[in-house]
Design a protein that fits this description.
The chain has no helices and 16 strands. The chain has about 170 residues and is mainly β.
């Protein structure tokens, strides 16, 4: 059996104290709550402190071993077996794309790209204040970014192999 997870509507009223995940350390009030059922060991509940974005969800990191938990924009990479936080790579996430083994985390100005080959990196800024319509086509990451200069949505394009921004809405 592989590890699995489920999002809970709130903290459970009984059972062991939830694991606390935060960028500041310590405990915090109820955040984004996830029950994890590891491959080995007992199930556990994680309470993830909320970030500054709008997106919440749980998915597997493209490497398949770590859970990617996003709590209102704050990303957490967690080992479901050890209950250990691997990293908090990005905050301010407003949208997520899972496609062709890639996971793309969009903030309002840039993107974190998680490769199916194991790497992860943050793009240069591609928008002034908003990213939408993100997709992968032919080795390119495409989308629209808000241009404050033109007061309009403008296309951006990133070459996923070279990591170079081909076009940007942030000029």
């Amino acid at each position: 059996m592989a590890a699995s997870f489920e999002v809970l509507p709130g903290l459970p009223g009984d059972g062991p104290y939830p694991e606390q995940f935060t960028t500041a350390g310590g405990t915090h009030r109820e955040g984004f709550v996830v029950r994890v059922l590891p491959e080995r060991g007992p199930p556990w509940v994680g309470n993830f402190q909320r970030g500054l974005g709008t997106f919440s969800g749980v998915m597997w990191h493209p490497g398949g071993r770590l859970l990617l938990v996003i709590a209102h924009g704050q990303a957490y990479l967690v080992d479901p077996e050890s209950r250990r936080l691997a990293s908090t790579p990005f905050d301010g996430i407003s949208g997520v794309l899972e496609a062709s083994g890639w996971v793309i985390l969009a903030s309002f100005t840039d993107l974190m790209i998680l490769s199916p080959h194991g790497g992860q990196w943050v793009s240069p800024r591609v928008a002034w204040d908003g990213i939408r319509n993100v997709r992968i086509e032919g080795g390119r990451l495409l989308g629209d970014g808000w241009s404050a200069v033109l007061d309009a949505w403008r296309p951006f394009e990133i070459d996923l192999e070279t990591r170079q921004v081909v076009t940007s809405a942030y000029d």
